[in-house]
Amino acid sequence: MDSKVEQLFESYFPNLADKFSLRVIQKTATQNLLDGNNTLCIMPTSGGKSLIYWLSGLSLQGITIVISPLIALIDEQASKISEQGYEVLTIHGGISPKKQVDLLKKLANKELNPKFIFISPERMATDGLFEYGMKKRKEDINLIAIDEIHCVSQWGVSFRPFYRRIPEFLNSVFNNNWPRVLGLTATLNANEIKDICSSFHISRKNIIKDHLLVRSEIELKKIKFTNEDEKEEKLWDLLRIHRNEKVLVYLYRKYNKRGTEDLMKTAIEKGYNAVNFHGEMSAKARQEIIQKFKNNDVDVIFATNAFGMGIDIPDIRVVIHFMIPESVEQYYQEVGRAARDGEASNTYLLYTNKNIRVKKTHFIDRSFPSIDKLKDVFKKITGNKTNYKTLPYFNDEDVQLCLPYYLDNDILEIGAKGITTLDIFSEIKDPEIERLYNLTRTKGFISTVKKSGHSPKEVSDKVYSAIINEQVNLSKNLDKSLIVRSKYTELKADQIKILEQYIEDKRTYKHKLLDYFTYLLEVCENSRELHQEIGRYLGVDKHNLNKIYRTRKGDLVRSKSEVIIANLLYEANVNYEYEKKLYYDDQNWIEPDFTIEVGEKDIYWEHLGMIGTETYDKRWLKKIDIYEKYYPDQLEITYENPALSDSARNIIEKIKVME
């Protein structure tokens, strides 16, 4: 298996293959996709997730659609693939509407043949021209890669409603014959995994999880205070301690006292080169700040959680949470901004009991719309009628907040991804479009549908077909509008009860996530315990939880003594595998600490770090029996003592003579 994937890597990315080798999880996930399986891959931040869809997509020899949540992340990934010599198409709001239409026409007509197409879930869910173009090219699309797939789950802190519409898009374009699907993320809990696997037809056996999810190179420190003044004083102490390092301070409030702007101003007064960062800034302004941080023009960023997914700065050395995150997942995602280069980093969580209360009452509870808000927005969308309406989704924040609640509870349905008016056409060459255009004086899409005898979907498809086939010219920008219809004239008691329960279930679940996180903060005494409990929660195999020491090769091992052995092997150019399964019959195996290929047979190296301990000794005696029976003369042993380095070097010299 490895050799095939490695050969593909060397073939498609020779420049990268000269610099590094694929990690085991990258090879496993790629092979799983090539074998025809929808795959969920969970691996840590900076673990090389994107290379999996690069290699898998090219190996499947078609177009890969990459669904990604942020324009900055789309542009960064598109640039990196382009540097490797592959054609990429990006579709997002940073591209002019006229150019977007031109690109989609060329794509649909096979004048453009990119290897990768990048798009956001919101654009995918609302852009009918894009969907129509993908239907024209569906035979060429072999992979759907969903980055940051944790945004799909309704149970996740980072839930993005239109991620849940991706299966609807796939059904519309491909019917039941989906391309292979690859989901990528760094953290998922059990509920989220179940939700995602159900949505994308991923079986449990096709969940590939990196045992390196525990980020042991990041020191986790947490300090509880009795009041906010003490907490702020500690913040300034920490900034002074880490004055010459890149520091990211997370808050979840932009304005008012101790918000991002307030603390930024105080930091500047204290002589720090500080900025603030939040979601209300323009994409351009946020990107400029990120670039300055990368270039060391900024020392400290005070940020909301808008500073998150897709921001790749390798040398952030300190992350400080000045307010408590909502969950284990959010906390681990955010501390994962540090140490992307694998170097040791420090993180601090500063919190009070008041922070926990406020997180529930002001942040979690207020993240849900009130029933009055849901009633008002329902009336705004529908006019309390059950006929079709155009809904310019991106023009109204209240609509963006409330629409998922109506869709998820079968109150509204989307009839089509359409336009608001036909009064954008000139030089109409298509007789059917000419007929539709002349049906009404106002040229409105809904009134045209009513008089046409067609459904909204049929009319929109005719419009997009005419655009793609250049049977019309556009005199104005092609707008995007969801065509929705209500199943009710008003929200009555039954619908309100359903909505109330829907909100309450989610609110209760989020409270429980926060309660569990605060429980871990109270019971874990040090960084190692907190990492391990988070690892258990995220589903890391208990066998791998104690692998916390990184070697020069990049492995994680269980002890500092094993680091010494691994590094000496690496320096001597002796190829080894750590804890590789060694099957001594059809069903049973042992895991030598180090397996080394020497000629026609392997050498197995065991380091006995706890010899003299009763349970350890019993396990070792069983292992000795296996080695003596199945692998005589293939075992090397070292013991825990100050002369370990000398003992290891002697064994390595012996091995090199055997090669």
Question: Could you characterize what this model shows?
Answer:
GO terms for molecular function: 3'-5' DNA helicase activity; ATP binding; DNA binding; four-way junction helicase activity; hydrolase activity. Residues 222-382 form the Helicase C-terminal domain. It is an enzyme of class 5 (isomerase). This is DNA 3'-5' helicase. The chain is of the alpha/beta class and 659 residues long. The protein folds into 4 domains: 2-209, P-loop containing nucleotide triphosphate hydrolases (Rossmann fold, 3-Layer(aba) Sandwich), CATH 3.40.50; 218-363, Rossmann fold, CATH 3.40.50.300; 385-489, no CATH class; 549-658, Trna Endonuclease, Chain: A, domain 1, CATH 3.40.1350. Strand 22 (582-583) and strand 23 form a beta hairpin. The longest helix is centred in the last third of the chain and has 31 residues, at 493-523. The radius of gyration is 28 Å and the shape is globular. The two termini are 25 Å apart.
